[in-house]
């Protein structure tokens, strides 16, 4: 039986929590500068709480929700974060609650006809909505070529249609808010080989490839990368393609 999209991440929740990178401070500094107050923020589809944890360093209270109980169970804890299992499109939050609503690496999975009215309902007048995504990455010509040949080409047919919305920088998503100009955010984590392989192991297309072929998609990739990486613990810059969408809720 085919899995729902969130199930591709639910049963990999411990790996997801360990492998997904934290976002740069410059992103949150920009978002907070755009908010009239730092009272309460909602991180929607929080996953294992990477964004919520960063927001908690700025906001008095952070509500962090995800449809996956397994993801919430792995979430990083903080005294100013309250986690809950709720769908993005229907929550129990009161009207006009949040100064900021964020969605990291998940907006493309939502049902927009239901999600946008929910965001408009819970945002304060003039509140900010922000969503971001990262897609392909660049390490170096030799490594990139191996990843393209032994992974990207192999899993090309296993991506869900929604992923393409993220790859296109969310430009084709209907957006009901007044756009806010965004800075060019540099997103360049530093990973060793094990960290890189753990990250790509969280991709939904890798999971689907594994299901179809009954074997690990990453084994040939790992073998080939070991030959060119250098010491396994050597950390390399992984330059991510990063997209940020922001808008203000006018009521």
Overall description:
The chain is α/β, with parallel strands linked by helices. The chain has one domain: Rossmann fold (3-Layer(aba) Sandwich). The chain has helices at residues 7-10, 13-19, 25-33, 50-55, 69-73, 112-122, 141-155, 163-167, 193-200, 204-213, 219-229, and strands at 40-44, 61-66, 81-85, 98-104, 123-138, 178-179, 190-191, 236-237, 239-248. A 7-stranded mixed beta sheet has the order 3-2-1-4-5-9-6. Strand 2 (61-66), helix 5 and strand 3 form a beta-alpha-beta unit. The relative contact order is 0.17. The model is unreliable at 1-13 (pLDDT under 50).
Concise structural overview:
This protein has 251 residues and is an alpha/beta fold. The protein is built from 11 helices and 9 strands.
């Amino acid at each position: 039986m085919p899995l729902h999209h969130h199930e591709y991440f639910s049963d990999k929740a411990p790996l997801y929590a360990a492998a997904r990178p934290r976002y740069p401070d410059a992103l949150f500094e920009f978002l907070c500068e755009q908010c009239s107050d730092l009272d309460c923020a909602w991180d929607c589809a929080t996953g294992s709480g990477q964004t919520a944890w960063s927001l908690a360093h700025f906001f008095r209270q952070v509500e962090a929700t995800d449809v996956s109980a397994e993801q919430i169970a792995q979430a990083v804890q903080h005294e100013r974060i309250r986690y809950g299992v709720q769908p993005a499109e229907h929550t129990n939050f009161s009207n006009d609650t949040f100064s900021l609503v964020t969605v990291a690496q998940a907006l493309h999975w939502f049902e927009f006809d239901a999600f946008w009215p929910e965001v408009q309902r819970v945002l304060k007048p003039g509140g900010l909505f922000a969503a971001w995504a990262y897609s392909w990455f660049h390490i170096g010509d030799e490594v990139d070529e191996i990843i393209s040949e032994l992974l990207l080409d192999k899993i090309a047919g296993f991506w869900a249609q929604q992923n393409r919305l993220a790859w296109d920088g969310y430009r084709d998503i209907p957006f009901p808010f007044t756009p806010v100009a965004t800075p060019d955010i540099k997103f360049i984590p530093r990973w060793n080989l094990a960290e890189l392989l753990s990250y790509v192991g969280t991709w939904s297309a890798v999971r689907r490839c594994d299901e179809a072929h009954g074997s690990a998609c990453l084994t040939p990739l790992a073998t080939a990368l070991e030959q060119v990486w250098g010491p396994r613990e050597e950390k390399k810059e992984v330059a991510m393609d990063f997209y940020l969408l922001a808008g203000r809720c006018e009521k």
